[in-house]
Every structure is written in structure tokens, then in C-alpha cells.
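Feature request disguised as a bug report, sorry. It would help if multi-protein outputs had a clear separator. Right now it looks like this:
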Amino acid sequence: MTLSVFEKSIHDARPLELYEFSHGLSIFTYTSGDEAVSFQSRTYTPTALTRSAIGSSTEVSKMKLEIEVARDNDVAKLFIRSHPGPVKLTIYRLHRGDLDVVPQWIGRVVNVEFSGLTAKITCEPIYTSIERSGLRGMFQRLCRHALYDSGCTLNASAFRDTATITSVVGSTITVVPMNRASGWYTGGYIEVGDVEKKMIRDHSNDVLTLTGVTASLKVGVTINLFAGCAHDRNACLNKFNNFDNYGGFEFIPNDLGPFKGDPIE
């Protein structure tokens, strides 16, 4: 029988849900049932979880889905120290003994809150991104492009160095070797593996101050360092040799009303 037939049945309905979380190359799969389920070459293991009702609304705050799991759940642990980056969630619905599996909900994890022995995973449906304003070019003095994006055109791998962490104190790490002058990495970022990234707020000698830390930042771990940019003419021209793609307008007059150098949409 099809899923719709089971859904309408009073006696035969035996619903199950499959939860697939993805973080980079890591996949975490769970089922609300009491037995493991195989689907698309993956095994969904039974786990204790509850979720809020799935609904629709014109208000983003009312479209959030909350899932409560054990504190030591692998997905929850990704968020213990800071946000690990994009974590996607797909919920499938099916019935025991039936092969008709339907995606019920698709979205992303936005936050995890820990309380006692449990963790609350808050998610938003994928279409909430439509509610947000799109990116628009700005008429401003400093470069409007994000470093290494399609407007900047620089290849991040060409400005990548490798180092090993020798000390972690709060959001500050010390690395070796350090072959760049202070400030070289300010505004850049570090990469752990191929999914975890943290922006570098400050670079002084062999010490980097990050916007946050993750559980994977430990002494002895090898990381990638990517050069930062001040988004001004000097950095674009002399540091990156990329002035043809400079997105700023540094010669905006200082006294022409709205053209004072502030961003203009």
C-alpha cells in the first residue's frame, strides 16, 4: 500500500519517522521506532527523541521545529562549544512493513540548547531563506566583495598555509610554524578538516584570536590558515595582486551629500 492509504487507515497505520542530519561529509541517522531501519543504503538507529508539531505559518518564528534528544547525542555535541557550520535535516515518514518513504520535512539546524540531561535542537524549514533579503552590491569606499567569493575571484587554496596548534586558551590559539608577519591572517579564517571554519579576528606573531572555538581545536591538531583581507586598495593591489576585481570606490568625494562613502543600496 502507499503511504496515503496507511495514513487514512485506522487499523493498519504504524507510522515511523527517519531523521537524517548532515554536517559536511558526516551523516547522522536516527529513527523514532524501536528497531533499526535500512533506507538508501543507510541504517537509521533507534534513539529517544521527541519533536514539536510540523505546521505552516507566515511567521518564521512559528515555523521552527524543536527536537529534544539526549545531551550526549552526536548532533547535539557538535554545538557544545560553538556553532559548527551548516547542519541540514531531512525527516522521512513511512509505516512499518511498507516501502513507500516520503520526505516530510527539510530544513537546517539553527541552534542547540542544553538543559540537564537533554538538548533541544531548534530547526528552520529550508524555505525560510526566501524570507531574507538577497545580497546587493554597495557603492562604498571599501571593497564590497566577500573574500574568496565569486566577485573577489581569488582562489582560497592559493593563500592557504598549514600549521599545528600548540596551545588553546579560550578563543585564542597558538600555532607553528608561523611564517607570516602579524596581521597577515586578520580577517581570514582557519579550517579544521573540510567542514569546520572559524574567522580570525586578530593575528599577532604566532597567536590567532578566533570568533569562537570548536571541540576539534586541540593541541596537536593540524589546521589550514587562509590569508585575511582589509578590503582596501592596498590589500587588493599589493597583498593579493587582484586590483582588477576590486569592489570599492575609494575616490568618492567626501562632501557630496549622500556620497560620503557610506554604503548605498
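(second protein starts here, but nothing in the output says so)
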Amino acid sequence: MINLKHIEVFHAVMQTGSATGAARMLHVTQPAVSAVLKHLEARLQMQLFARVGGRLVPTPEAHALLPDVRGIYGRIEAMERLAQDLAGGRLGTLSVAASSPVTNGWLAKAVSEFLAARPGVRVALQSLASPQVLDRVASREAELGLAYEPVLHPEVVAEVIADNSVACVMPADHPLAARAEIQVADLAPYSLVTYLPQALLRPYVDRALGQAGIAPAIAVQVGLSITGIALAYHGAGIALVEPQLLASLPLPGLVARPLLPRIEVRTLLLLHRDAPRSRLLEDFIAHIRERRPAP
């Protein structure tokens, strides 16, 4: 029968890529890890790792098992966190996953303020793409997620936590920077920086540009808002990105102007439908509701 020790060792090897790394992570010896791994492969009657140049390379079968192992591991970690919260009240650990612009923008400040009042609390904060945030919450690897819509998953409940919109980020001396608002059609003569075609927000940008009847001169396509903001700072073009990061970490000489018609971006708070919610988690949810950016 497979036991939790098998799962723990498998998970550690998948994370570190070697028996030595897994042993260091688990605070055991390398021969102990190798023995457990060998026993697991014998139980499953399949090879999980190929030994290549001192590394353990996962087989396709190992990759197929990983999502279920993550789910089990996530539930174990959730149980440990709950026990810590029950024992200590203000002690415990929060696991949070959020979309990159949210993590590096207003959420970073909110987490810092929350910890300042709770020195015994620890937070694991992951910056991920929105689909990955949903996956972490669904598998209970994260207690709470903040991601852009749309979000559809039977095991995850979502509520709107913030309404924002894509903006025009540009140098303060740009010809359009003097305007309080910028119409999409006004962008026609200028080079643009915006998201890659596969990015979650790109279809919204394309739709707005298409409805304005302009053929955009997209100079650079990026995966992250912060990259677009950096490119605008260095003069690559007007960045059409979600601007909350700039509001949290202003760059001298760079401004953001509202784009009309608005390209709305809704940030959703995600929780697992069946996961227990500690007092610490409830307090954190209340805190970020108070600290969320104004529309």
C-alpha cells in the first residue's frame, strides 16, 4: 500500500530533481530517499524516474501522477495550517496565489500591512498567471487566490474583489500625456506595447482596437504588465496594460492615463468551496477587502 511517506518523497524529488535535493528538503539521508523511491516504484510496478547524469528525470507516468499527488500534498498542508491556527490563534501560515500585476501591486502592500500587526504570521505568496492561480486554489495548494476573470471551476467560489481597467502607460512628456483621458482612436499614430496573443487580457485589447477601426502598430508584445511598463519607461511605445503596479511602485517620469472606451479588468477572490477557513484566513480576507484599490 502507498503511504504518506511515499507521497512525500515523490513530491520532494519532483520538486528538486534529485534524491540528494529531496533528502535535504525532508531532512533525511539520501539513501533513505532512494529506498522509499525504490519501494514506491516496486509497489506501482512502474519506473517513475530515469537516472541521467546524477539527476532523476521524471517519466511520463510520474508527470501523470503529479496532479493527484499535489492535491493530496495540498490537503495535508491545509490540515497542518489549520492545526497551527487552532493552537495559536494569531500564529499560522497563509498560502496565497495571485496574478502577477496584483501580487506585485496592491496585494504586496496589503500583505506587508497585515504582517506588521501579526509578527507571528507567515505568508507564502505566489505570483502566477490567472489559470495557474485557479489550479492552485482548486488543488488546495493555495488557501486563497486573486485572479482575473473569467474563472469557472466547480470546486472554486469566486467574488469580485476589484474593478480596474487597462490604461495607457507612457512617459510624462509624451504628446498624449497632457490629456486626462485617451480615446482608443487617438492611439493610431503611435507605437504600442501590449500583451502576447495568448495572454488573458489580449482579446479585450484587440476588441477595443478593432471596434475603433484602427490598425495598431504593436511594437512589442509581452507576457507581464511589469514588462510593458518597463518598455514604456524606456520609450518603446505606449503600454496598454493593467496599471495597478505603477500605482503601487511609481516610476519618475511615467504616467498612466485612462483609456476610453474602458477595457475593464475584474479581479476575483477565489476560495475552495469545501476547504475549512481559519480565523487567520478570514481576517486576511477582511483586510484585503479594506485595502483593495478603488474603482
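Even a blank line would do. Unrelated, but nice: The chain has three domains: 4-58, 69-161+267-291, 167-262.
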